[in-house]
Design goal:
The chain is built from 16 helices and 14 strands. The longest helix has 25 residues. The protein is globular and about 70 Å long. The two termini are 44 Å apart. The N terminus is likely disordered.
């Protein structure tokens, strides 16, 4: 077992209770990250790493403990140092220990002049005891491709339910305590361990839910908070699916109009309605009989995926559609946007099990198979090209653990939200909903790129916000 896997496994062990230091004091033992983690950036000589010990179950503070991996890049000008800026890249389940180093390569880099940049792997992710649990043969076979759509759905639902029950059974206490609220509580333990009275925070994607939950419960501990590509304020997995499907449909209608205007080149139809019929017929054909070109198998799902691509590649999308209709070679594959064993397997590279557990615990009890199928049928009727929505499918089938709702509310600490006008992962309307729920100012980035604020010119507004508290509304140019 590699050092990293051993570190991930050790992080799950029970360790002695650590006495919490008072504000202004820290007893953390920092070491260069590239000495601690073998897969670290070899050219990074600034990042330091440590661990912070927290209760697995906050209601039992003297019970089982876990270690969280935490990283730091100190402010370059200690005389101007304002405090710490905690960072989270989303997921849930994405590692965050490398985020301080990553941020120094973006337009937010100058924040490191006056802020210590703090990253961390959330509980059960990466170096913080990351574990995985994949489906196994004992969970049953894959759905029968010859079965009816409703029967295939039922088989998938039941298989996911068996996988969920088996994985939870390996460590029910751990899986029960994976939620956005639990990670928010961990953030406050990190604040205390750092010896800070307050923290600033920057979160992307699910990191915005984490920030919103932290601020709702620890508003007096927030200096300034910025949330980019914002999650829905009223969370369920189906809310995620419906919101994503609606945003994809809205963007697709613009693409269909663009293709109709170029009917002389692509011959897909002179109206948006005609284009949609051509594409829908092709998708249904590929669903029934996929084709293989240059070793790549194209299904209807690959075609539908292309329809969600950025406007900058619409020419290639059109050429790919034409090629799939006429037997040519598509320039795209439909896989571009990327995105075993038994027991809980240590994994240092991320946390898909944690992602599933957090989404399902945050939501609470999943709909039964009949209601879940009705949700699919509704999406199929309303958004026929994008019925899978965010793609979560039956992740929470049969989930037996109690709900851990967010309980969001307004706060008084400075808050800046950023939404992306054409985005489909976290649609702009969610940022508007979150603003109504918790307050803050909303800046709209005119692009379709998830979490791009730190890459575009109006990143300077974010830098000013963290330095002065000034918030921004209106819009600014994005990436595409």
């Amino acid at each position: 077992m590699s050092k990293l896997l051993r570190a991930a496994a050790v992080a799950m062990l029970v360790v002695p209770l650590v006495t919490t230091p008072p504000a202004g004091a820290s007893t953390l033992d920092w070491k260069p990250c590239r000495q601690v983690h073998e897969h670290w950036y070899p050219d990074d000589d600034r990042s330091e790493c440590t661990t912070v010990t927290v209760p697995l179950d906050r209601s039992r503070p003297h019970g089982r403990k876990i270690d969280l991996a935490v990283s730091r890049i100190k402010a370059t000008d200690q005389k101007k140092r304002r405090g710490v800026l905690l960072l989270n890249p989303g997921g849930p389940g994405n590692q965050g220990v490398s985020l301080p180093y990553d941020l120094t390569k973006t337009k937010f880099a100058e924040l490191n002049t006056d802020h210590d940049l703090i990253g961390f792997d959330p509980r059960a992710v990466g170096f913080s005891g990351g574990v995985g649990c994949e489906a196994t043969p004992e969970d049953g076979p894959e759905p029968d491709p010859q079965a009816s759509p409703s029967e295939r759905f039922r088989q998938d639902y039941e298989r996911n339910a068996r996988t969920n029950a088996r994985c939870i059974g390996y460590d029910r206490e751990l899986l029960t305590n994976l939620s956005t609220r639990a990670v928010a509580d961990d953030m406050d333990d990190i604040r205390v361990a750092l010896g800070e009275r307050k923290i600033s925070y920057f979160g992307i994607s699910w990191g915005t839910a984490l920030g919103a939950v932290y601020r709702s419960h620890y508003d007096h501990r927030v200096d300034r908070m910025l949330l980019d590509s914002v999650m829905p304020a009223d969370f369920t997995v189906e809310t995620m699916n419906l919101g994503s499907a609606a945003a994809k449909q809205s963007n697709y209608e613009v693409l269909a109009g663009w293709l109709a205007e170029r009917d002389s080149a692509f011959h897909l139809g002179a109206t948006g309605q005609a284009v949609t019929k051509s594409i829908s017929d092709l998708a249904a054909q590929l669903d029934h009989a996929p084709v293989t070109v240059n070793g790549h198998r194209y299904t209807g799902s690959h075609l539908r995926s292309m329809l969600t691509y950025k406007r900058t590649v619409w020419q290639q999308v059109a050429e790919s559609i034409v090629a799939l209709r006429t037997g040519g070679v598509p320039p795209l594959t439909g896989d571009e946007p990327e995105n075993e064993g038994f027991g809980l397997t240590p994994v240092w590279y991320g946390g898909l099990l944690m992602q599933r557990a957090v989404l399902c615990n945050d939501q609470g009890k999943a709909p039964n198979v009949d209601e879940a199928w009705r949700q699919v049928q509704y999406r199929q009727e309303k958004y026929p090209l994008f019925p899978t929505g965010a793609g979560y499918g039956n992740w929470c089938a049969g989930w037996p653990l109690p709900a851990t709702p967010w309980h969001l509310k307004h706060g008084s600490s400075p808050l800046q939200l950023a939404g992306h006008r054409y985005e489909t992962v976290t649609p702009h309307v969610w940022a508007e909903q979150m603003q109504r729920k918790i307050g803050g100012a909303l800046l709209t980035v005119d692009d379709s790129t998830h979490g791009s604020l730190w890459l575009v010119d109006c990143a300077d507004k974010a830098v000013r916000f963290f330095r002065t508290g000034q918030t921004f509304s209106g819009s600014c140019p994005g990436t595409s």
